[in-house]
Design goal:
Elements: H1 13-18, E1 23-35, E2 48-60, E3 63-68, H2 75-82, E4 90-95, E5 98-99, H3 105-115, E6 116-119, H4 131-141, H5 146-159, H6 175-187, E7 193-197, H7 205-218, E8 223-227, H8 231-234, E9 239-244, E10 247-251
Parallel strand pairs: 3-8, 3-9, 6-7, 7-8
Antiparallel strand pairs: 1-2, 1-4, 4-5, 9-10
Helix pairs in contact: 4-5, 4-6, 5-6, 6-7
Length: about 250
Amino acid sequence: MFNRSAQDSRSSAIEADSRESTTAVRLEGVTHQYGSGGGRLRSSDERTVTALRDVSFDVPMGSILGLEGPSGSGKSTILHAVAGLLVPTDGNVLLCGTDLTALSDAERTRMRRRHIGIVFQRFHLLPSLSARANVALPLVQAGISRSDRRARATALLEAVGLGDRSTHLPGELSGGERQRVAIARALSTDPDVIVADEPTGELDTATGADVLELLTDIGRDRAVVVASHDATTLSVADRVITLRDGQVDDVR
């Protein structure tokens, strides 16, 4: 269903080099500490919380990695690190061969926009925009023309079974439909990696099964990193890492 489009010939040298690797995501000895104010540690005098301790793993292209563990185990912190939304205190995060920790904020943003799609548990759709406009939003940031944005968003909504709902606002859609819109939006820039945080957490069993089928389809030629408490959601993963107190407790 979700065939990869041709890579943009205008991509930067950083992005071109990053596509040479078949390992989509690699964490090398990643440790992350938060300060008492909730942000990254800034001072040795600040009380700290260690969210991750020496976490390492690879995610090849065409595979799904599941992350499980109790609340506070580090799942969301890993997703944020993979997406370049935070820089770990120690260690390296490689996205398609490029070390995100060595980049400037602007370079990380560019890498995220080009290579990462994010699926949130609570959808994070803009309520005043139609389904099609929500899907097209990342393409506005990418500088894609209006006609191309419309065509791409329409095609993606049709691919997730919502071709007849493209003009509806999020408030006019069911929970499952909103999650499908969110998945279509995550795919709009044709990313190499999808990160999904509890993608079925707000859905009933039948609707959740439909969303998992979509994620499985997506994972055929991309890398997917999904965090969940739900065993059914994790059953679609090729490998599952169990986290406890910020450390890898088990891999299966």
